[in-house]
From TrEMBL:
<dbReference type="Pfam" id="PF05709">
    <property type="entry name" value="Sipho_tail"/>
</dbReference>
<protein>
    <submittedName>
        <fullName>Phage tail family protein</fullName>
    </submittedName>
</protein>
<feature type="domain" description="Siphovirus-type tail component RIFT-related">
    <location>
        <begin position="24"/>
        <end position="123"/>
    </location>
</feature>
<dbReference type="InterPro" id="IPR008841">
    <property type="entry name" value="Siphovirus-type_tail_N"/>
</dbReference>
<dbReference type="InterPro" id="IPR006520">
    <property type="entry name" value="Dit_BPSPP_N"/>
</dbReference>
């Protein structure tokens, strides 16, 4: 039985909704701009190295029509009130999309037993690992393997004091005057402490990415440990 989980609720177990057929899961479109220049052969292109959102259409059916009107109201409330939430399909339970329902849902009753309807999800471009667990590094020079197909945007918690130089592969990030803990959040492009105080002025360099495959992480300075929330992702 195909189903999906959205906003912490399962379509079949909580609402009696089944997926009529396995949905198409499109790849995101890369943002590339093309320009025609007079007197020059071909076209010049500029690659932003970013991707557009994707749309997933899920054809659903409702088997039991008992108290149908009330159930449909409950289903619509669930889908729309969840806002932007994790979307996980039963046929790929280790990956998730970050999605939001964007269509007005119309229910079509077929015979007297089934109500069918599409659900349209607008999703961020990538799939993410459902299990996004912290990785703790206690020794400089350890390896982290990225199982995804893209660079990930990690959140790195650096525990230490004073001036620290953090190295990830060939990239170096300087941290000046660290006091106990500093957080490097590549996902939102920000550096801060536990109280959310902005510490970008203490960082020198670019926020780090973890490439697909092996990543070596080392440091110099007074570092107690690193914790990495990896945010693995796939096209």
């Amino acid at each position: 039985m195909l189903s999906f989980t959205f906003g912490g609720k399962n379509s079949y177990e909580d609402y009696g909704i089944v997926i009529a057929k396995r949905p198409n899961l499109p790849s995101p479109k890369r943002r590339v701009h093309y320009m025609d220049i007079p007197g020059r052969h071909g076209r010049v292109h500029y690659d932003e190295n970013t991707y557009e959102d994707i749309t997933i259409v899920v054809e659903c059916g409702l088997i039991d029509t008992e108290n149908l009107v009330e159930r449909l109201d409950t289903i619509k409330a669930w889908l729309f009130n969840a806002g932007e939430s994790d979307l996980i399909f039963s046929f790929s339970e280790d990956k998730k999309y970050i999605a939001q329902v964007v269509n007005a849902i119309d229910f079509t009753q077929v015979y007297k037993y089934t109500s069918s309807f599409p659900i349209i999800f607008n999703c961020h471009p990538f799939k993410y690992a459902v299990q996004n667990q912290l990785i703790t590094l206690n020794t400089s020079g350890e390896l982290i393997n990225n199982p995804g197909t893209l660079e990930s945007e990690p959140v790195i918690y650096v525990y230490g004091n004073g001036d620290i130089l953090l190295n990830i592969n060939d990239q170096s990030i300087g941290l000046n005057g660290t006091q106990g803990k500093i957080i490097l959040n590549s996902e939102i492009q920000d550096c801060y402490d536990d109280a959310m105080n902005n510490l970008n002025s203490k960082m020198v360099g670019e926020l780090p990415l973890l490439k697909s495959g092996e990543n070596i992480i080392s440091w110099t300075g007074n570092v107690t440990k690193l914790e990495v929330l990896p945010n693995w992702r796939w096209l």
